[in-house]
Structures are given as C-alpha cells and as structure tokens.
C-alpha cells in the first residue's frame, strides 16, 4: 500500500492506495504547531478505522506548500509508519517540463496536479484548484507546464467581506435560488458564487486563446470545485482527488520498490 499526503495551507489530504485502488481518503486541518506525535496518532486512528495495518504500507509520498508543517509530518511517517516519504520537489521525476522563469517557484501541489491530470485525461489541459487560493495551471500537449494564475480563494475572499463590512453577516457559501438576491444573505451568496463562476469562465477563455491549441480540457479540483463547476460553462471535469492521484503517479515514476 502507498500512503499519499498533500499538505495545503488550509487542509491536509491523506490517501492510501492499494495498487490502483484508493482504499480511503481523509482530511485534517492544517495546524503548523502540531507535533509529529499528534499527527502520528491521528494517522494511526484513521488506519485503524479503515482496517489498515501500518506494516501494510510499503512506501509514502507527499507534497507540501507549508514548510513549517512538513518536518513534523515527515517525522510522523517515519516514526509511526516506518517509512521515509518521498517529498515532491527538486530532483523528483515528474515527466513535465516546467517553463516558469524560476521552476523552484512553482508549488509542488501544482506540479502534482498537472501530472495527475495528464495521466487521467491527457493534454492539453487547464487545472483549476479551488484551495486557499484559486489557481489556474496550463499544460500543453507537449507536457510543458506553461505557467498559471493565482487568485484569492473563495473562502478567504468571503472572510475578507465578513471582516471588513461590519453589517454583513457570516454566511454559508452555497448557491442561491436566483441570481438577483432578495435578502442580504442571498445577495452575498449570489455575489460570491456567481462572481467566482464568472472569474473562472473568463480566465479560462483567455488561457485557451493564449495556449492556441485545440481540445483543451479544463479540470477542477479542491473543496469548492463542485459548487463552481455546476454553474461554470468552462469546466469539463471535476476530480476532488486529483492531487492524491497525481501523487500516486509521481510515485510510480520514482518507484523504489
């Protein structure tokens, strides 16, 4: 079995694969101050619930955009699983040519998403990741990672609205019944949801023009992907587990078995 972990700014996604089957996947909040023992005991609880023995895990791979949390998670895997995880970064094979001016600036999660999208859907492809930030990544048919766009994420944009506008309430981010709101809550929901739908559709249309290829697929992942994709005209595929699938593919390219 393979343990795959994606450490994001808001959440940590955890998956265990047996061959090509994802046996289980879980999420926990990213708290930089967690110790390796806290993380290890959490992992043991998940494995126990799923009927997975730690000694059944033959290897581990992870990507992280939160350096303060990386060390504790790596140590937790070493101590509780008995494996030294592959950490996606410089020197790890991905099969992708990074065209960024400084390739080290590209988040490992973006590269992993690109690897997963190419494996599952082929290229050219645009990946939209609805995480703490909303990111757009462009990969052409030659497996070149061309670059992308980084925007404030849905939740942090909504939090800024709640915090800075004193009379506006904190609301659930959900699709309203109609575009023109008749209450403060529905007006805010409409602005947040349809505002991001419009952002996605417009940015994707510009990216496709600049990429200049035919049959460019758009794949969405992340916590808000389903909500926005349901209204978007540009999103073709939703895969909430894309990063975990990408980690598995990167592992296969760097297999130590």
Structural account:
By secondary structure, the chain is α/β, with parallel strands linked by helices. The chain has two domains: 2-87, Nucleotidyltransferase, domain 5 (2-Layer Sandwich), CATH 3.30.420; 97-246, ATPase, nucleotide binding domain (Nucleotidyltransferase, domain 5), CATH 3.30.420.40. Helices cover 39% and strands 25% of the residues. A six-stranded mixed sheet has the order 6-9-8-7-10-11, sandwiched between helices. It has a five-stranded mixed sheet with strand order 3-2-1-4-5, sandwiched between helices. A hairpin with a 4-residue loop joins strand 8 (133-139) and strand 9. The mean pLDDT is 93.
In brief:
The chain is of the alpha/beta class and 257 residues long. The protein has 7 helices and 11 strands.
Number of helical regions? 7
CATH class of the largest domain: Alpha Beta
Order of helices and strands: EEEHEHEEHEEEHHEHEH
Mean pLDDT metric: 93
In CATH terms, what is the architecture of the largest domain?
A: 2-Layer Sandwich
Give the overall silhouette. globular
Structural class: alpha/beta
**CATH H-level superfamily of the largest domain:** ATPase, nucleotide binding domain
Oligomeric nature of the chains:
single chain
* Rg over CA atoms: 19 Å
- Fraction in helix: 25-40%
